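Fold it.
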Amino acid sequence: MSYAEKPAKIDGRSRPRDIERTRAEILAAALQVFAEKGLASARVDDIAALTGITKPAIYYHFQSKEKLYAAVLEAAYGGMRDMETSLDLDMSDPAGAMRRLVEASFDYHAAHPEWVRLVSIENIHGARHIAGMPEFGHRNAPILTTLRRLLEAGQGLGVFREDVEPLMLHWMISALCFHRVSNRYTWQENFGIDLTAPHHAETQRRMAVETVLLFLAADRSSRPADRKAGKAATTLNGTANASRRAPSRVT
């Protein structure tokens, strides 16, 4: 059922609903409302209007607007994690599996801007609505397990470097996929570019994959940043050695 549809009614009353279906309909509509208006401006009346479910029924299922908002966040994160676990990645080809994971993450962010807005809103609130809720940690743990398995598979085959933490790799992938959606409007105004235009999106998707794979490559000589860092380190070491050999002067 779309957000705008209302359930059929008999004699002005809603048909009996399955509890899980009712909760799912409320969460779907609430996601749209919270992402569009933020927590402070969102009204339970708006959610009731989208679903045809009465306000008392919404409060019966979620107790308060704040608890409904937290439930929406949990469901939104769950959608991302469910997508990742459904990929059935081939651990015998860790580079190919990593490519597929990055592409899938990029595509999910692009297809769900409401999720990106919702996460941005919660960060504005300092994550206070999910603080102290262990279910969020449990719900998001699978991606770290997946990345750890991919890293270990790639390291075992000698194709991935050894010094990468799963959490930092997750940060890198998220940053590459999240920013282009969260900042699309300011980029449009500041630089006159629509980051979501198909030709730009295709380029960004390829760049995200190549950035991650290049960073993970076991052969450091293939990474431009490492080559530059190596040259800089050589120069600094040479300068330091020369300084130690030079006689000191008092001026």
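The radius of gyration is 24 Å.
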